[in-house]
Design goal:
Elements lengths: L3 H11 L6 E3 L6 H14 L1 E6 L7 H12 L2 E6 L2 E5 L12
Parallel strand pairs: 1-2
Antiparallel strand pairs: 2-4, 3-4
Length: about 100
């Protein structure tokens, strides 16, 4: 689990990122979770945007992505979810 200080640090890092995934009408599926896991391994910190036509609410989407990708949910702001997962081979972010 992340501490409050670590979450604040990650939020400031994520501020400049653009969402690289969008969850739409189909909701969260296995393929999406697999791609998000790979993106997290490469980047460690990503944003996912929840589109208005998504049938699940953003909290549900955040939880299922967190569980599926084994990541930490940094924050949900508006329709954007910020996820973090420490990379095994490509560690870039040094947590405080």
């Amino acid at each position: 689990m992340l501490t409050g200080k670590q979450k604040r640090f990650l939020r400031s890092k994520a501020h400049h990122l653009n969402p690289i995934f969008q969850v739409g009408k189909g909701g969260v599926n296995e393929n999406m979770v697999k791609q998000i896991s790979e993106a997290l391994e490469a980047r460690e910190l990503i944003k996912v945007s929840v589109l208005q036509n998504c049938e699940e609410d953003r909290d549900t989407v955040g939880e299922s992505l967190k569980k599926g990708a084994g990541a930490e949910l940094v924050q949900i702001i508006g329709n954007t979810i910020v996820l973090y997962k420490e990379s095994k081979e490509n560690k870039q972010i040094q947590l405080p």
